[in-house]
């Protein structure tokens, strides 16, 4: 279960590191959901008339408030889902950066564009759609929401959030932040609802579009409901990102980066490197360096500033990870580091001799477990990288830039980071292909997802 339920109308949030009950939430009724969506639509009618200058001023204020409340918000994240506190503070800072980025760039990104035609004048303008639903996960409980909300609201839309049930406190806090800096009431609302109640929201006539970050199953469900109702969706789903190391790579730097790329957010990141594909010439050297660096990590209390890896977000998720590792070992993989679970904590772990057909290769391991795979050569490495139903991000390590560009064109993913780890950046479009989803967030591409790209032609 993704939440603790006292009865069918309430949900409890728990601290995964301690087992402590944090808060009990009462779920919205059908009529309350309908009323909130109507309030959002009413708010949209006024919000869409505001200027970019007015919206930018509010987001700059929000950026300052985030920085001011960084410690408080970081502690909330860590308590609800176990993120190491230093990483939680960095997440708040990144949200502030995003606010400033779109406050500066949104007007430019949405400026009308003149087009040549057989008329005396023609141009494309970008108009807001209306109420946009966001279904968001627990792993980056602020950043995932902000990268939807900031561009959407800057474009003149209004947002309603269905957060993960173990991050209800974060959703509640974000709505309060928007109100505190002066956003009009109901321009950004947090809905305390279950996943099963999303259908009612999506089918409401005032909800024009939806975005989801989460599992393949959740994405498929939302896409199906939205499709039946002819509504736009953006999906950012799972990933099993390859981290490819060629024989001319800087092995020490690659290995050190690999540890961060695999264990960021205690390994619970869609864009974390998960399959480490190493050509045979440098395989042994990389594995040794990788193991040495991974062994340095400190697992423990996520509230401790010195902790590198905290708990998993829920104990059932740690158990699921444990089973995936066990199944892979039964099929021939070997554990050379870690491999033990204690309640919601799972040790940083390295599996070697990983091959296709194992859970450690085929599935997404959502925790601090690295799957190391030996490739015969560059061509084989590319084949292994692409042999996945996912296609979110990828990392390639080589000192030959021309070769890197050539290989980048062959890798089936939404991004290729060369000699660096995959990350989301407000200045760059973010998203995936295959079962990692569709559509893009961030940059100019992200703000164009939820607007009416309208052609105006004048005779």
Description:
- The chain has 459 residues and is of the alpha/beta class.
- The chain has two domains: 10-237 and 436-458, Aldehyde Dehydrogenase, Chain A, domain 1 (3-Layer(aba) Sandwich), CATH 3.40.605; 241-425, Aldehyde Dehydrogenase, Chain A, domain 2 (3-Layer(aba) Sandwich), CATH 3.40.309.10.
- It has helices at residues 30-47, 52-68, 70-81, 85-109, 143-154, 168-180, 198-203, 216-228, 251-263, 280-294, 315-330, 359-362, 378-386, 401-408, 443-447, and strands at residues 10-14, 21-26, 113-114, 121-128, 131-136, 158-163, 188-191, 207-213, 232-236, 241-245, 273-279, 334-337, 341-342, 345-346, 349-352, 369-375, 390-391, 395-397, 417-418, 433-434, 437-438, 451-458.
- The strands form six sheets. A seven-stranded mixed sheet has the order 12-15-16-11-10-18-19, with helices on both faces.
- It starts with 9 loop residues before the first strand and ends with a strand.
Notable traits:
seven-stranded mixed β-sheet; Aldehyde Dehydrogenase, Chain A, domain 1; 22 strands; 2 domains; 459 residues; globular; alpha/beta; six-stranded mixed β-sheet; Aldehyde Dehydrogenase, Chain A, domain 2
> What is the first-to-last residue Cα distance?
60 Å
What's the CATH topology name of the largest domain?
Aldehyde Dehydrogenase, Chain A, domain 1
Main sheet: strands, sense, barrel: 7 strands, mixed
Which term fits the overall shape? globular
Number of alpha- plus pi-helical segments:
15
Overall tally of structural domains: 2
Question: Into which percentage range does the β-strand content fall?
Answer: 15-25%
Lateral strand order in the biggest sheet: 12-15-16-11-10-18-19
**Mean pLDDT metric:** 97
Helix amount, in percent?
40-55%
Secondary structure class reads: alpha/beta
CATH homologous superfamily of the largest domain?
Answer: Aldehyde Dehydrogenase, Chain A, domain 1
Q: Assign the CATH architecture of the largest domain.
A: 3-Layer(aba) Sandwich
